[in-house]
C-alpha cells in the first residue's frame, strides 16, 4: 500500500451513529500504520463533501443502504468506490473490519 493518505467517508442518516465507528477505524489504521483520513457525514451533506474533500471511498451505514444508487449517481464518474458497511461489522462497531472493507475498495 502506498503512503498516500486514503480518505474514507462514512455516511449515515445524521452522521451520529458512525462517529464511534470512525474513532475505532482510526485506532485500527494507526495500529496497522495506514495513513488514512476517516470521517463521518450525514447523507444530506454528501454532495458538499464530494466538492470539498479528496475522497477515495464512501461507506454507507446499513440504515441508509437504500441510498446506495443515489450516492453512486452523486459520485458520477469520479473514481470513488461506494459500498454499504457490512452489517455485522457495523453492529459490533468493528473498526478494523470496516477499515479493511474500505481499504479493499480503494486498492
UniProtKB/TrEMBL annotation:
One of its GO terms (molecular function) is protein-N(PI)-phosphohistidine-sugar phosphotransferase activity. Residues 5-107 form the PTS EIIB type-3 domain. This is PTS sugar transporter subunit IIB. GO terms for biological process: phosphoenolpyruvate-dependent sugar phosphotransferase system. Keywords: Kinase, Phosphoprotein, Phosphotransferase system, Sugar transport, Transferase, Transport. InterPro entries: PTS_EIIB-like_sf, PTS_EIIB_2/3, PTS_EIIB_3, PTS_sugar-specific_EIIB. It comes from Liquorilactobacillus nagelii. The modification Phosphocysteine is found at residue 12.
Amino acid at each position: 500500500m502506498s503512503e498516500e493518505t486514503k480518505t474514507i467517508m462514512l455516511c449515515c442518516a445524521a452522521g451520529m451513529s458512525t462517529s464511534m465507528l470512525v474513532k475505532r477505524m482510526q485506532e485500527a489504521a494507526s495500529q496497522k500504520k495506514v495513513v488514512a483520513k476517516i470521517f463521518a457525514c450525514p447523507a444530506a451533506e454528501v454532495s458538499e463533501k464530494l466538492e470539498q474533500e479528496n475522497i477515495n471511498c464512501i461507506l454507507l451505514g446499513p440504515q441508509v443502504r437504500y441510498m446506495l444508487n443515489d450516492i453512486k449517481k452523486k459520485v458520477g464518474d469520479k473514481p470513488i468506490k461506494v459500498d454499504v458497511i457490512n452489517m455485522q461489522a457495523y453492529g459490533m462497531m468493528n473498526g478494523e473490519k470496516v477499515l479493511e472493507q474500505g481499504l479493499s475498495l480503494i486498492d
